[in-house]
Recover the amino acids of this structure.
């Protein structure tokens, strides 16, 4: 186990009907609230009215920023920052999925920074302060509700980049599983893949002597696998939706499940390059990339892949070699993704070889990526080629 | 799963040599520090000097309170509160095990309260504020390093009582596993039993549809069982000590592993009555109480005990009935405690029937205890009698 620091100050308020606590949660942070949301599905479901009532009940003045994109764009973030300055916003409230939360975090950080917010994503400046922000989550996927990370797309430069800061942890996140009942099938699937991928990025590690962390990772994977198809079959299955929501939050809650472990995150880096150019859903991109990443890297530490096959997929050793076990676990991952309807190849989105070189070059912009196996430009190109 | 709120603001700094970060961690909270510690073992190990150097390096004025007892006493807490007031203390730093941390929390809360600190333990007042406190942990056991709970003994009234508050979470806890290398064998054993008992209090629950939480609990139990004997055989086994330390913290970190679940805590209540009168180590008392509690209550929800036997102790179903499985799991628990040297009966401490009635009555002072099975005075007396 490596030395580590862990600090996650986000308060979670979880369960059916908890949006009714929103007013009291927002009130301590001031009077002027920037309400950030997406395409307007929250108006159809009635959530918008409920949130507005809560804010009104504590006398908040509401400034709105709607239309946050599924891969949230720098232009929206800049618009939000301008609103914060013009209206003297005290608090940023995100109502939506990970994209809306990420945009809200970038706005909160940018509003307290004199330079351009994109500096944070290009490692040109560090976040030293941010407006307080909070969230009402409507999608189980990114874990953004309990961490300080944000991923934003710069459509002009075709770059999709992330930051992480202690200053951009939500002060609170309201997690009501019933709000995810109306999430369409494909978004539910993408969320499941995203949650599992977050665990993979932490679980496939070269760090040894971390038996508790390994088991915490496996606990989430097993629970997601067990509940995903239940939620797909019966979208209003409260227990299944609640279990997925809790798994999504725990999978990336400031890195608790992998404290003291080297993380990888190469697959996320590769996926970001794909969706930076093609604007495909993040979870779908991960479904395409991850099994291919696994096939490319498993020899770095075959015992971890053997353990994965045994503990997560229940594959029995029998007379199988380590290699056979590892590959069986990888194949089981692919088969599960396919069974729930997640895509397997870039060609599913009509993506060919045209931009693979650009993606590979951009993926290693700040140097080789990953730690389970360090990947250079050539490695990334090979994984992308496997994914065609 | 039940609705829940979760908020754990404690920062954890974990690993070998992390005491070197102490000065920087304390500095933001002010200049006058109350240093709370126990019998003086930290002077023998050199930790005292290291802590003093760190505090000196940031120009802190140090006020000392030493001699905190293994079952920390109200008299010591009151002495600490007086010191805080007399010296204008800004920050309370606990250096030691759970007892020292608990005393420091009670001091921190009492120093910001006009009435008597014992009010908090007798449910006569709620903690509304506390001095900031932090810790350097020297023993893996109570989880006090990452929660807001404290247990204090009132030796005059023979009462051992607890409180919990968001205001008494440590602002930081420094967890260096090498500081536990010198923990004597019996204290290591008691710590192991304490950690496992904290998980039991959460795991044996009537709440259903909590598969992730169940697995998180099982993950800790499996990891403790796997590492306890390694640490006992080789007290300076870093990996084993680090794993136990992380398990201790995770087992009771504000209830993260059992969010949305009814907790029990009856066994702790019963043990507190024993050690309130006989001053035996808490972990030893739990080793005596818990298997007997299990035998008394398992029929409340036999499937949870069957799962416990299967997943934690690897007991194979074969042709066994639910009852046989449950009892096999309970027996495995007892056998493990005995194998590592934890006591099985009250008679080990020459405790007879003399005070069982008082203990049973005091245990239910505020009403029946437990939720897996609600226990009244008669039930407690029966469990204590089983433990003779």
């Amino acid at each position: 186990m490596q030395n580590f620091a862990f600090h996650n100050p986000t308060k979670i308020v979880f369960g059916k009907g908890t949006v009714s606590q929103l007013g009291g949660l927002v009130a301590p942070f001031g009077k002027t609230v920037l309400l950030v949301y997406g395409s307007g599905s929250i108006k159809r479901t009635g959530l918008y009215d409920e949130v507005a009532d809560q804010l009104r009940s504590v006398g908040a003045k509401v400034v709105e920023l709607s239309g946050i994109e599924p891969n949230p764009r720098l232009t929206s973030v800049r618009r939000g920052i301008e609103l914060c300055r013009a209206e003297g916003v005290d608090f940023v409230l995100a109502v939506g999925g990970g994209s809306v939360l990420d945009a809200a975090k970038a706005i909160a950080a940018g509003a307290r920074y004199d330079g351009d917010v994109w500096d944070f994503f290009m490692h040109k400046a560090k976040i030293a302060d941010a407006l307080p922000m909070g969230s009402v989550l409507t999608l189980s996927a990114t874990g953004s509700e309990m961490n300080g990370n944000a991923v934003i797309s710069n459509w002009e430069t075709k770059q999709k980049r992330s930051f992480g800061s202690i200053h951009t942890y939500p002060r609170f996140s309201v997690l009501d599983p019933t709000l995810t009942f109306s999430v369409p099938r494909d978004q539910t699937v993408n969320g499941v893949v995203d949650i599992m991928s977050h665990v993979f990025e932490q679980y496939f590690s070269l760090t040894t002597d971390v038996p508790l962390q390994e088991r915490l990772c496996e606990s989430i994977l097993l629970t997601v696998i067990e509940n995903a198809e239940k939620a797909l079959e019966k979208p209003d299955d409260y227990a299944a939706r609640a279990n997925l929501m809790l798994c999504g939050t725990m999978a990336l809650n400031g890195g608790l499940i992998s404290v003291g472990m080297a993380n990888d995150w190469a697959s996320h880096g590769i996926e970001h390059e794909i969706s930076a150019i093609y604007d495909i859903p993040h979870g779908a991109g991960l479904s395409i990339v991850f099994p291919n990443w696994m096939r490319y890297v498993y020899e770095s530490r075959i015992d971890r892949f053997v353990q994965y096959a045994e503990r997560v997929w229940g594959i029995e050793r029998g007379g199988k070699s380590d290699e056979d076990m590892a590959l069986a676990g990888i194949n089981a991952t692919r088969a599960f993704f396919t069974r729930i309807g997640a895509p397997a190849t870039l060609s599913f989105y009509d993506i060919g070889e045209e931009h693979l070189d650009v993606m590979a070059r951009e993926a290693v912009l700040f140097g080789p990526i990953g730690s389970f196996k360090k990947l250079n430009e050539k490695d990334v190109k090979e994984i992308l080629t496997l994914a065609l």
